Amino acid sequence: MDRTERPESAASNFPPMQVTLRDGRSATIREIRPDDADAFRAALERLSADALHSRFFSAMRPTEAMIERAVRTHAERERALVAVAGEAGTATIVGGGRCISGADRESCEFAVMISDGWRGMGLASSIMRALIRDARTRGLKRMEGYVLTENRSMLDLARRLGFAVGASEEGPSVKLVRLDLGSIARN
What we know:
This protein is of the alpha+beta class. It has helices spanning 37-46, 49-56, 64-71, 123-137, 152-160; strands at 17-20, 26-31, 78-85, 92-101, 107-114, 142-148, 164-167, 174-180.
C-alpha cells in the first residue's frame, strides 16, 4: 500500500480534548492530520538538542520522509496525537504522542515528545492518559515504551501511571516501561 492509499487517521473516532495545564495554559489534544506537516516540522525544529535526544535517543533532525510518515498514520494499527496551543490560524504544536500496535495485535509501543517550554506542566501526562484510554478501547492488552535512563521525569510519570520499569535489551542507558492495560484502575 503506498502513501496515497493509506487510511488516514482523520477517519478515526478520537475526539479532541481540551486540557488545562498546571500553569493555566491550555492545549487541545487531537489526532495528527496530513495537513499538520508544516506545523509538525516547525515543532521539531524548535526542539532543543536535549528534547530531541529524549525522544529519538539522539540529537538528529527528522527528515522530510519522517515528517510525512508521522502525519500519515495507519488508522487501524496506530494512534498519533498532537497537543495544539493557540487560536486557529496561529495554533502551534507543543507536544505529541504515538502508540503503534505490535504484530501480535495485543501490545503497543508508545513515544511522547513535549516542547521545551511546555515540559513539567502535565501535558505528557494528559497525552499518555489519552493514549492509554485509546489503547484499551482498541482492545490492546499491553503498552510499552523505551525511555532513556537519564529521562527521570518520563520514568517518574510512567511509574505514576502504573507502568513497571525494568531493563531493556537496548542496554543500561535505556529502560523498558510496561503497562498491563487490563489490570490497573482506569486512567
